[in-house]
């Protein structure tokens, strides 16, 4: 199995399945394609029909693109891991917030792009981005209250992986967050898989 990703510095979509695979100790080969270069598009199109990363290439050679489709595929391939909650109601909520993350929060994405090694407190705090942050905090608070933590549905899973790049944005831009959100962001940042991704971003900058 191969996962084709973009730069760890700013490829937020690539981060999601990569962190999920690493956290659960699932072996895979990593192929990194540097973004924003003359041959980037051609290299990606060799493996990904969408021309975008990430793309998972299964052992059978089949490509799976789009982060949410990739993590769903990984969960199907490894049912021994509770990547989605085992409880049906919790699973439905986890899928709902993951899909909301996948499709929404455009203002946050535009005004606070993921740039892992950058520190720019206070930047990008537009009304739209702040409204997105308020919604994210509400999601986190509800999920953590229902599950009791330490992650959104108790144990780390797909929903947490989907929001991991948001935590990276919060680390960079340092918007004002409530205590629950700050504690959750610290737990995500400290995860070995997330720490490994951050270190990879630092190595790219060297």
Outline the structure in words.
There is one protein chain. By secondary structure, this protein is of the alpha+beta class. The protein folds into 2 domains: 2-81, Glutaredoxin (3-Layer(aba) Sandwich); 88-194, Up-down Bundle (Glutathione S-transferase Yfyf (Class Pi), Chain A, domain 2), CATH 1.20.1050.10. Helices cover 55% and strands 7% of the residues. The protein has 9 helices and 4 strands. The chain has helices at 12-23, 40-45, 67-77, 88-103, 106-111, 127-147, 158-173, 179-190, 192-205, and strands spanning 2-5, 29-32, 55-57, 63-65. A 4-stranded mixed beta sheet has the order 2-1-3-4, with helices on one face. β1 (2-5), α1 (12-23) and β2 form a beta-alpha-beta unit. The longest helix is centred in the middle third of the chain and has 21 residues, at 127-147. The chain is globular. 38% of the residues are buried.
| Known CATH architecture of the largest domain | Up-down Bundle
Strand content: 5-15%
Number of strands: 4
Number of domains: 2
Strand line-up across the major sheet:
2-1-3-4
User: Biggest sheet, open or closed, and with what strands and sense?
Assistant: 4 strands, mixed
Envelope shape: globular
Mean pLDDT equals 97
Number of helices: 9
Roughly how many Å is the radius of gyration?
A: 16 Å
- CATH class categorisation of the largest domain: Mainly Alpha
User: What distance separates the N and C termini?
Assistant: 29 Å
**Helix-strand category:** alpha+beta
Spans where pLDDT lies below 50 across 5 or more residues: none
Order of secondary-structure elements: EHEHEEHHHHHHH
CATH topology of the largest domain: Glutathione S-transferase Yfyf (Class Pi), Chain A, domain 2
**Share of helical residues:** 55-70%
């Amino acid at each position: 199995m191969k996962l084709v990703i973009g730069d760890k510095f700013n490829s937020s979509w690539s981060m999601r399945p990569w962190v999920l695979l690493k956290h659960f100790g699932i072996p895979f080969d990593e192929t990194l394609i540097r973004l924003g270069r003359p041959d980037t598009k051609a290299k990606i199109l060799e493996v990904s029909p969408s021309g975008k990363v990430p793309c998972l290439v299964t052992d059978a050679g089949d490509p799976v693109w789009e982060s949410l489709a990739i993590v769903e595929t990984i969960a199907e391939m490894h049912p021994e891991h509770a990547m989605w909650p085992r409880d049906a109601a919790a699973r439905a909520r986890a899928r709902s917030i993951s899909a909301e993350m996948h499709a929404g929060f455009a203002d946050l994405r535009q005004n606070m792009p993921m740039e892992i090694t950058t520190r720019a407190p206070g930047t990008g705090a537009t009304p739209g981005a702040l409204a997105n942050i308020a919604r994210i905090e509400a999601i986190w608070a509800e999920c953590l209250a229902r599950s009791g933590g330490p992650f959104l549905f108790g144990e780390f899973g797909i929903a947490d992986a989907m929001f991991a790049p948001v935590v990276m944005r919060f680390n960079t831009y340092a918007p004002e967050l409530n205590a629950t959100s700050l504690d959750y962001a610290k737990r995500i940042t400290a995860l070995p898989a997330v720490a490994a991704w951050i270190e990879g971003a630092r190595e790219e900058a060297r």
